[in-house]
Amino acid sequence: MSSFAAVPIDMAAANLAGLAASANKNLQGMAGASFVIARADALAAARQQPPRSLYFDLAAEEAYFSAHGQMRFTAPVQALYALRQALDETLAETVTARRRRYDESWTCLIDGLEARGFVPIVPRELQSRLITAVDACNIPGFEFEQLHDYLFARGITIYPGKVAGRETFRIANIGAIDRRDIAHFLLHLDAYLASCRQ
Questions:
Q1: Distance between CA atoms of 58 and 170, rounded to whole angstroms?
Q2: How confident is the model at residue 161, as a pLDDT?
Q3: Helix, strand or coil for residue 60?
Q4: Average confidence (pLDDT) over 70-85
Q5: Cα separation, 195 vs 110, whole angstroms
Q6: Is 168 within 8 Å of 158 (Cβ atoms)?
Q7: Residues forming a β-bridge with 132
């Protein structure tokens, strides 16, 4: 879901029967549409099983689409038009170039965070380079909500951490941004940290 169009995925080598992804994330489209890339034999096998869901019955969706050329239920038309545009933009940029842009943004981000005392929760060599979770326990006066609101007022969104009992947050470097946007974030982070020290 979060790596499609940014991380090479060899479905055959990984022995994947199917892959679900979203129109947003690395495709950089509008949220609201998702899709599945599946092996034909896996779909055939799914047709032999009783469905466990009406709406999320992938075999029925594929069969209906093959017969009628449209979805079984009301389509998210605006999200599908946005997905088409996002696919065109992905093909124009190329996944290789997008990954390079993401890598450059991530390097700027992780170097900047570490220089300011933040510690990545996942070691650098294991990072996806798409979203980074950082520990802020060593930052005097740090409070996530204050940083979130400070940045949000300046057009920057960060996400709460997922580690219980620790001051952490997550920041993505995916989307239609580059290292200049990361540098912009770091400037505002500096201003916030300076206010914590007062």
A1: 32
A2: 86
A3: helix
A4: 94
A5: 22
A6: no
A7: 171
Q: Which domains does the chain have, with CATH numbers?
A: 18-93 (no CATH), 95-197 (3.90.1150.10)
Q: What residues have CB less than 8 Å from 103, skipping those under 6 apart?
A: 129
Give the C-alpha separation, 112 to 114, whole Å: 6
Tens of pLDDT, residues 62-75: 999 999 999 999 99
Condensed to tens digits (0 to 9), the pLDDT of residues 157-180 reads 999 988 888 889 999 999 999 999
CA 76, 89, 10: angle at the middle one, nearest 5? 85
Question: Other C-beta atoms within 10 Å of 141: how many?
Answer: 11
Backbone phi and psi for residue 4, each to the nearest 5 degrees, phi listed first? -55, 135
Distance CA(195)–CA(197), nearest Å, equals 5
Spatial separation of the C-alpha atoms in residues 68 and 171, rounded to whole Å: 42
**Rounded to 10 degrees, what is the CA torsion of 174, 177, 180, 185?**
-60
* Helices vs strands, H then E, count in the chain: 6, 6
Specify which residues 170 forms β-bridges with: 133, 159
Q: d(Cα 158, Cα 175) in Å, to the nearest integer? A: 13
| Euclidean distance between CA atoms 42 and 62, whole angstroms | 12
